[in-house]
Amino acid sequence: MRMFLFRELLGAIRTKSAVLLVLSGFLIFLFLASAAGFLMITPAEVSSTTEGQPVDELQVFLSPRLSSATIDEWFLAWRERSDVARLRFQFAQELDQTTTGGVFVVTPVDPSQASTLAEEFRSIDGVVEVVEVPRVKWIEPPAASLIARIALLVVLVLSIAASLFFFRRGYRELLAVFSGEIRMLRLSGISERTLIALVVALGVLIGCLGGLMLLAILYLLHRIALSTGGLQLFGGLISGIRILGTGLMAVGLGTVLGGLAGLLGASLLHRREFDPLP
Amino acid sequence: MIQVSELHFSTEDGVKVLEDVHLRVDQGELMVIVGPAASGKSLLLGLLGAQIPPQQGQILVHGRNVARLGPDKILALRRRIGVYPQGFVPLSRTVHDNVIFKLRALGNYREQAEEKVLYALETAGLIRRQGVDALELSSIDRIRLGIALAICHDPLLLLIDEPFEGLAEPEKAEIARLVSRLNTGHLSILLATRGPVPPGMEMSRRVRLLDGMVKGA
């Protein structure tokens, strides 16, 4: 019975309602595509460089033959120096497992004077090596992925709002054509549940089709990405598992959204024009 | 079969439309309710047809109190009642498809529905017009179609609201004869009209509804 009524409801679709409902379906597809886009964007990787950077600290490797008393004496003397901002002692193995002895990690007050300070430390008997450690510069990820995310978010919000708007208008057109049938069904003892289910089923069908369309397009893009070696911004298209997961999620989400849109359409059934009695 | 007692109904504004209505319709009886416009005839039929929930009083249909029936039982009851609503407008499809739509919607299989369509159209005198677009029918044929729709699912109770509207006298008599012909066997019929009752109506009883009160029940 419900299939018969659903076919009848589909049969009541006219040009205007068809255009509005197809547009709603396309907007749901756009919403799902935006959501899927979030999962396809290549995660931004933060990189670092030391090239051309000022020296941040000096690692002064001490001879293992130095006595602890000498090391203590140097530590106290160097700490008092006006060109040393900070000083700490570490075992050399903490920095390099192949070496032995101790290391003074010296932070100069003025990075531009680090080389002079290093030369001075190198001239001291008992100092094996002085390593000048430049400052690490962290490089921010390219802004493209951020812009893409913002754009997707805007499309996401606009598409769902527009979709609900056109869904409601499409349903209004469709139900106006089907109003005589609805009155007759109510008069004949057909339950409200059945009527609501019919309207919701149409939304579910449209939402599900939107999701399936996205699944097909994602698969197509996946094949293209594999043959061309991948897209820089949407690196997720390379992964088959991700494509399948995202596609199935889109079908599920499309179905739920279509159902919600259907409920919005079903709310129109309470209008007076559908009352069976005058 | 139908027993109405102490039935009251008021609008949201507090205007009393039905007041202490008592009525009894036996199985196989054809009762005509005559009353002026806005006297509550359509409301009474809506209440008897379980389309409008009662506010106060008792309506027993087939021994069941309509006010106490749950939603599913109300729907089941509606399926046993045929209704011809006032100002009936057919669907924009052929006469045949109008009737088959209702029967299929009620869960009849196509073959079963086709048989019932033929019977209903034959009874209503529309069998030769079954291929015609229902919106192109004459006034009397529209009423015939409305009646065919009301009887196609073999109801136990038939409620007909103002079937003579917009008809010439001979046509009114024709519809009256059609309704009388339906009054065979188990089917009870309640027909509401502003009156007068056209000749040819073989009714069991006639009651007057005036200012929301039934006279002569």
Describe the protein's topology.
The complex is a heterodimer of chains A (278) and B (217).
Chain A: H1 2-11, H2 15-40, E1 47-49, E2 55-62, H3 68-79, E3 84-91, E4 102-108, H4 114-122, E5 127-134, E6 137-139, H5 144-177, H6 179-187, H7 192-228, H8 240-266
Chain B: E1 2-10, E2 16-25, E3 30-34, H1 41-48, E4 56-61, E5 64-65, H2 71-78, E6 81-84, H3 95-105, H4 110-124, H5 139-151, E7 157-161, H6 169-182, E8 188-193, E9 205-210, E10 213-215
Parallel strand pairs in B: 3-8, 3-9, 6-7, 7-8
Antiparallel strand pairs in B: 1-2, 1-4, 4-5, 9-10
Brief account:
The complex is a heterodimer of chains A (278) and B (217). Chain A is of the alpha+beta class and 278 residues long. In chain A, 59% of the residues lie in helices and 13% in strands.
Q: Could you describe the 3D structure shown?
A:
The complex is a heterodimer of chains A (278) and B (217). Chain A is of the alpha+beta class and 278 residues long. Chain A has two domains: 178 residues, no CATH class; 91 residues, Ribosomal protein S6/Translation elongation factor EF1B (Alpha-Beta Plaits, 2-Layer Sandwich). Chain A is 59% helix and 13% strand. Chain A has a four-stranded antiparallel sheet, with helices on one face. By secondary structure, chain B is α/β, with parallel strands linked by helices. Chain B folds into two domains: 142 residues, P-loop containing nucleotide triphosphate hydrolases (Rossmann fold), CATH 3.40.50; 67 residues, no CATH class. Helices cover 32% and strands 26% of the residues of chain B. In chain B, strands 6-7-8-3-9-10 form a six-stranded mixed sheet, with helices on both faces. A four-stranded antiparallel sheet of chain B has the order 2-1-4-5, covered by helices on one side. In chain B, helix 6 links the parallel strand 7 and strand 8. The two termini of chain B are 15 Å apart. The model of chain B has no long low-confidence stretch (mean pLDDT 93). Chains A and B meet through helix 1 and helix 6 of A and helix 2 and helix 3 of B.
